[in-house]
Each structure stands twice: as structure tokens, then as C-alpha cells.
Design brief:
Helix content is about 70%, strand content about 0%. By secondary structure, it is an all-alpha fold. It is globular, with a radius of gyration of 21 Å.
Length: about 475
């Protein structure tokens, strides 16, 4: 969740089969599909809080985490017997079904927290452009708004994915591309008039210090989900050469665009940068300082529409992995039932209940102290849950390359066994470091806020890690399950 913008990619990836053969997808289409999984705007304010350090983190996570995940996932996705089931098969076959189910659970469960993060951002923008701070500052009002937005989005998905796809396409163009382009042009005009660069950017070193180690979680989050396109790699012409080149290009493009957005906010804004209002604050400074002009309101609405499109894309997408597990007998059969539009309604209801619980925990747990606490907790928890899946993923990858080096595969990480160890090792190490970083208290929190943050984070994480193993044991008790 992290975070995930295209309506077709997620649903195809979790449990999808590779495309039929070379030439079935163009290089540009594959590039665009993968880019849409991680290019977003709602993390710009969080990036900006790190000043110049954001450049270091984006390069580090792009080269040593994004690329290893993409390459290793492509290899696992093309090994005979591993292509069906996505991460469930990638982890479950080498490490056992219970662990594979846990990885699948983490991959799905993280988005239930991610939804809350996305809606927090939407609420922050709406509160700012329409000057209604109550929806962002009063916990019970904020909670109700999250519920209305999420359940409305969920019920819309019952109409089928065709309608959702249309929303997502317009949302990505109008709510992501247009605001980013506008931000860049306005910033160039702003600084050409002689405005100084804020110390939010210049006052922070390029290399991170202990105090802002926790910021690393947001930068890992922005690259999460890239493995979703891996099953489609074999559809590229000369994919053994094309795929790694495309991934390297994506790292460059991702670093440049994300650095541009985060840096502009850090350069323009002075004082504290709000995690969920910072982006619209920057537009206000660039367009109409001190007031919400019609242009600011329009851009704010477009940004909200863009995030809404991302949420719509992910309400149904990640549930296909659970459907696959149900089809294989690892979950009750009702998990795979769909309505007349092909939508897994039972899973969506369960997912909705879980999102409601997370919204209550994260909103009321942080109290009135700061909107940033609930937002940062949601981001960190999303990262922790997803990183648990990635840690299992890389461990499984090492088991495969050492125990099954000769298994038939259509793609292999470049560099032979040494290359596999280097890429897999870099991904595993970065995953562990990010896990540790997520348990660091962000520098903008005081002692009391930090204590609240850590209590909610630790308790939620422990419960989440234990949940899939308990569920697996209950669902598979006294039953023989397919292997």
C-alpha cells in the first residue's frame, strides 16, 4: 500500500498467470502499468519532512530494495509450478503452506490499513481547501467521514470492475498527472521571482541522522507493490533483456519524479509540514498565499479524486489472492463466492469490517494530540505488515536458489548465483532495516506523542503477525489440505 494506483494491475497480479507469450505486452504498456503501482502524490508531504534526506532515501530504496523485489519476483513468477497464486505460491512452496498463507495475508491485510491512510489524506485536503478543520481535528467526526468515504467506495465496487476501471483511468490522469505538472510549473515560476528556498530543505543534511531514521518507512512504502507486475514479464519481447532494463528505468523515473514532488514541498513550505495537508499548503503558497482561491480549491478536488481512484482500484484488487487460497481449500469456500458482476462480496464485507476497526484504533488511539500521529501510525503499520510479507518473500527466494537451482524457469536474476545472492541479500537487508526503522519514533513527535505512537504500533503489529497463523490453524483443523 503501500501504496497503488492502477485498477487492472493489482487484480491481475495476485494469483495471476503469466501472459501467453512474448509480444503480448509492449514495453511502454508494461512500464506504465508498473509505474502506476507506486507513483503517487499523497506521500509528498511525508517525504518533504525529511528535507534533502529524501533524495538519499529515494535513491537508496530504489536501487537496493525496489530493483531486488522486481527482479526476484520475476524469477519466482516464471518458475514452473510457482506461477499460480502469486506470493502464496512463491513463499508457500519453499517454506510451507502456513508461511505462504501468512505472506498472502500480510500482502492483503496491509491495504486495510493503507485505506485509512489514503482517506486521512483526502480528509486533510478537504478540511484545508473548504476551511472545515473539524473533520480533521475532532476524532469522532474524522472517524465518521472515513467510514462514509470507505463504505461508499466499497459499495460502488459491487457494480463490477469495468466502472471502477473508468474511474481509475480518469483519476490517475486528472488527480495525479495534472497536479504534479502544475506543482512543477508553479514552483519554477515561484523561485524565478526570487523567493528563497525554505530551511525545511536546506537545513537537513543529505545523509540521515538517528533522529529521522523512522522516515525510511515512507520511502519503502512508496515502492511497495512493484512485484504485482512480475507475472507479466514473460509477455515482453526479449524479456530476459527488456525486463531488467525497464526496472532500472523505473527506478530512475521514480526517483526523479518523487524527489521533484517532495523537494518542491520542502523548498516552499516553512515551519512544520502537515502529513495530510502539506500538499495543498504548498499549492496555496504558490498560487494564492494566505487564502483558498478557486484554483487552489479545484486542484485540491482533483487531488482528492486522484486518491479516490487509487482506493477504488485497491478495494477489489488484492482480494484475488484470498480467492485463490479458498479455491485451493485453505479458506472456507464462501471466500471465493462472487455476485453477478464477478465481485467477491463476502471478502469485501469482511475487508470493510477490518478497515472500520483500523479506522477506530488509529483515529481514537491518537486522540486530539495531532492529526500527524494517526497518519504516521497508519503509514508505519502499513509498512510493517507489508515488510513482513517481503521478508518471507526474500527468505523463500534464497531457499529456492540454493535448494532448487535447476528448476525450470523462464527468467533468472542477472549475474548467475552471485547476482542472485547480491540482489536477494540487498532486498532482505533493506527489508529488515526498514522493519527496525518503522519502530523509531519520528523526530516531529514529542515524548507523549511518541509513547502513544509506539503503543498503538507495537500492539497492532503483534496482533497482525499472529492472526494468519491462528486463522490458518482454525480453518484447516481436522482437514486434509492440498499442497
Amino acid at each position: 500500500m503501500a501504496e497503488q494506483n492502477n485498477s487492472s494491475a493489482p487484480s491481475d497480479a495476485k494469483g495471476a498467470k503469466p501472459l501467453s507469450g512474448p509480444g503480448s505486452i509492449s514495453k511502454f504498456a508494461f512500464f506504465a502499468m508498473t509505474a502506476s503501482l507506486f507513483l503517487t502524490v499523497y506521500e509528498y508531504p511525508t517525504f518533504a519532512q525529511s528535507g534533502q534526506t529524501l533524495i538519499f532515501y529515494l535513491i537508496l530504496c530504489g536501487a537496493l530494495w525496489f530493483l531486488p523485489v522486481a527482479l526476484c519476483a520475476a524469477e519466482l513468477a516464471t518458475i514452473k509450478g510457482y506461477s499460480d497464486g502469486g506470493i502464496f505460491s512463491w513463499v508457500g512452496k519453499p517454506l510451507g503452506a502456513p508461511v505462504g498463507f501468512a505472506a498472502l495475508f500480510f500482502q492483503w491485510f496491509q491495504i486495510t490499513v493503507g485505506f485509512v491512510t489514503m482517506f486521512y489524506f483526502i480528509i486533510g485536503v478537504l478540511a484545508s481547501i473548504f476551511d472545515i478543520p473539524v473533520i480533521n481535528q475532532v476524532p469522532w467526526v474524522k472517524f465518521l467521514v472515513v467510514l462514509v468515504l470507505f463504505w461508499s467506495t466499497t459499495f460502488i465496487q459491487f457494480r463490477g470492475t469495468e466502472f471502477t476501471t473508468k474511474i481509475a483511468k480518469y483519476a490517475f490522469t486528472l488527480g495525479i498527472i495534472v497536479p504534479v505538472a502544475a506543482l512543477t510549473v508553479l514552483a519554477i515560476i515561484y523561485f524565478s521571482k526570487g523567493h528563497p528556498v525554505s530551511t525545511n530543505f536546506t537545513g537537513v543534511d543529505f545523509f540521515p541522522k538517528d533522529g529521522n531514521l523512522a522516515a525510511m518507512t515512507a520511502f519503502v512504502l512508496t515502492y511497495m507493490g512493484v512485484e504485482a507486475s512480475a507475472p507479466h514479464a514473460v509477455g515482453l519481447n526479449n524479456f530476459k533483456r527488456s525486463y531488467p532494463l525497464i526496472m532500472i528505468a523505473l527506478v530512475v523515473v521514480g526517483v526523479v519524479l518523487l524527489t521533484l514532488g517532495g523537494s518542491i514541498l520542502a523548498m516552499v513550505l516553512t515551519g512544520d509540514i502537515s502529513s495530510n495537508e502539506g500538499l495543498i499548503d504548498a499549492f496555496r503558497v504558490l498560487i494564492s498565499p494566505g487564502k483558498n482561491s478557486w484554483a487552489v480549491i479545484i486542484i485540491g478536488c482533483l487531488i482528492c479524486f486522484g486518491i479516490f481512484g487509487q482506493v477504488s482500484s485497491w478495494v477489489v484488487g488484492p482480494t484475488s489472492g484470498l480467492q485463490y487460497a479458498a479455491d485451493q481449500g485453505y479458506l472456507p469456500s464462501f471466500f471465493s463466492k462472487k455476485n453477478s458482476h464477478g465481485v467477491p462480496t463476502y471478502i469485501l464485507y469482511i475487508q470493510g469490517v477490518i478497515v472500520t476497526i483500523w479506522a477506530a484504533v488509529l483515529t481514537f488511539g491518537s486522540g486530539n494530540s495531532s492529526a500527524n500521529i494517526s497518519f504516521q501510525t497508519a503509514i508505519s503499520l502499513t509498512v510493517l505488515i507489508y515488510l513482513s510479507a517481503y521478508t518471507l518473500f526474500f527468505i523463500a527466494y534464497f531457499v529456492v536458489i540454493f535448494r532448487h537451482p535447476d528448476a525450470p524457469r523462464d527468467y533468472a536474476v542477472p549475474g548467475g548465483k552471485i547476482g542472485k545472492i547480491l540482489f536477494g541479500g540487498a532486498g532482505l537487508i533493506m527489508s529488515v532495516l526498514a522493519l527496525i526503522a518503522a519502530f523509531s519514533v519520528p523526530s516531529f513527535m514529542n515524548a507523549a506523542q511518541g509513547k502513544t505512537y509506539m503503543v498503538i504500533l507495537v500492539c497492532s503489529f503483534i496482533g497482525t503477525v499472529a492472526a494468519p497463523f491462528i486463522i490458518y490453524k482454525i480453518c484447516n483443523k481436522n482437514r486434509k489440505i492440498q499442497s
